[in-house]
């Protein structure tokens, strides 16, 4: 399974893709960051993020996209920018019919490090080890995007297969009901 992770943000939007399956070694496909100037118009910034995400989707052809779930922060402006960048990633994937999963930061940290309160350095260190990289991906947004993709390979793949099985079971023809007659 090839998964593209997106750590949304307006100034820095982390992108990372990994390939693998649960229980097997993972491999790095690509990692990077989309940067937009803080003094640019919001529309121009979102278009730049969209263009880069579209380019990644065209080139990498992932099976799924994992996006960090936006959570409440004290800075409303930061939350809004993160939510807007997140929506762009979701729309780009949905346009292609790709499954999109939203993972919380604590869910990703728990999957990667074993505990949901890990700091960015711990996440980056584990991403480096899990992908057998020579150096930690920088900036942290890049490592976070890879962590999202890894989390989805490990957790989301199972969830996706369960959802597919349930959908098949619901759409399967049902046998006619058996009528019982009381004597």
TrEMBL record:
<feature type="active site">
    <location>
        <position position="141"/>
    </location>
</feature>
<feature type="binding site">
    <location>
        <position position="7"/>
    </location>
    <ligand>
        <name>Mg(2+) 1</name>
    </ligand>
</feature>
<dbReference type="GO" id="GO:0003677">
    <property type="term" value="F:DNA binding"/>
</dbReference>
<dbReference type="GO" id="GO:0006281">
    <property type="term" value="P:DNA repair"/>
</dbReference>
<dbReference type="InterPro" id="IPR020563">
    <property type="entry name" value="X-over_junc_endoDNase_Mg_BS"/>
</dbReference>
<keyword id="KW-0233">DNA recombination</keyword>
<dbReference type="GO" id="GO:0048476">
    <property type="term" value="C:Holliday junction resolvase complex"/>
</dbReference>
<comment type="similarity">
    <text>Belongs to the RuvC family.</text>
</comment>
<keyword id="KW-0963">Cytoplasm</keyword>
<comment type="subunit">
    <text>Homodimer which binds Holliday junction (HJ) DNA. The HJ becomes 2-fold symmetrical on binding to RuvC with unstacked arms; it has a different conformation from HJ DNA in complex with RuvA. In the full resolvosome a probable DNA-RuvA(4)-RuvB(12)-RuvC(2) complex forms which resolves the HJ.</text>
</comment>
<dbReference type="GO" id="GO:0000287">
    <property type="term" value="F:magnesium ion binding"/>
</dbReference>
<dbReference type="InterPro" id="IPR012337">
    <property type="entry name" value="RNaseH-like_sf"/>
</dbReference>
<feature type="binding site">
    <location>
        <position position="141"/>
    </location>
    <ligand>
        <name>Mg(2+) 1</name>
    </ligand>
</feature>
<protein>
    <recommendedName>
        <fullName>Crossover junction endodeoxyribonuclease RuvC</fullName>
        <ecNumber>3.1.21.10</ecNumber>
    </recommendedName>
</protein>
<keyword id="KW-0540">Nuclease</keyword>
<keyword id="KW-0234">DNA repair</keyword>
<keyword id="KW-0460">Magnesium</keyword>
<keyword id="KW-0255">Endonuclease</keyword>
<keyword id="KW-0227">DNA damage</keyword>
<dbReference type="Pfam" id="PF02075">
    <property type="entry name" value="RuvC"/>
</dbReference>
<dbReference type="InterPro" id="IPR036397">
    <property type="entry name" value="RNaseH_sf"/>
</dbReference>
<keyword id="KW-0238">DNA-binding</keyword>
<dbReference type="GO" id="GO:0006310">
    <property type="term" value="P:DNA recombination"/>
</dbReference>
<dbReference type="GO" id="GO:0008821">
    <property type="term" value="F:crossover junction DNA endonuclease activity"/>
</dbReference>
<keyword id="KW-0378">Hydrolase</keyword>
<feature type="active site">
    <location>
        <position position="68"/>
    </location>
</feature>
<dbReference type="InterPro" id="IPR002176">
    <property type="entry name" value="X-over_junc_endoDNase_RuvC"/>
</dbReference>
<feature type="active site">
    <location>
        <position position="7"/>
    </location>
</feature>
<dbReference type="GO" id="GO:0005737">
    <property type="term" value="C:cytoplasm"/>
</dbReference>
<comment type="function">
    <text>The RuvA-RuvB-RuvC complex processes Holliday junction (HJ) DNA during genetic recombination and DNA repair. Endonuclease that resolves HJ intermediates. Cleaves cruciform DNA by making single-stranded nicks across the HJ at symmetrical positions within the homologous arms, yielding a 5'-phosphate and a 3'-hydroxyl group; requires a central core of homology in the junction. The consensus cleavage sequence is 5'-(A/T)TT(C/G)-3'. Cleavage occurs on the 3'-side of the TT dinucleotide at the point of strand exchange.</text>
</comment>
<feature type="binding site">
    <location>
        <position position="68"/>
    </location>
    <ligand>
        <name>Mg(2+) 2</name>
    </ligand>
</feature>
<keyword id="KW-0479">Metal-binding</keyword>
């Amino acid at each position: 399974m090839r998964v593209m992770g997106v750590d949304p943000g307006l100034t820095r939007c982390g992108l990372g893709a990994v390939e693998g399956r649960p229980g097997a070694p993972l491999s790095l496909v690509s990692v990077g960051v989309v940067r937009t100037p803080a003094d640019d118009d919001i529309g121009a910034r979102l278009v730049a993020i969209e263009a880069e995400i579209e380019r990644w989707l065209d080139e990498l052809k992932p099976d799924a996209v994992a996006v960090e779930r936006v959570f409440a922060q004290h800075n409303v402006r930061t939350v809004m920018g993160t939510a807007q960048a997140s929506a762009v990633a979701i729309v780009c994937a949905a346009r292609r019919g790709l499954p999109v999963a939203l993972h919380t930061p604590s869910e990703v940290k728990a999957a990667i490090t074993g505990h949901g309160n890990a700091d960015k350095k711990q996440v980056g260190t584990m991403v480096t080890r899990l992908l057998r990289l020579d150096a930690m991906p920088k900036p942290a947004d890049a490592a976070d995007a890879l962590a999202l993709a890894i989390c989805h390979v490990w957790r989301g793949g199972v969830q996706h297969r369960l959802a597919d099985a349930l959908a098949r079971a619901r759409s399967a023809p049902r046998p006619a009901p058996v009528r019982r007659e009381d004597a």
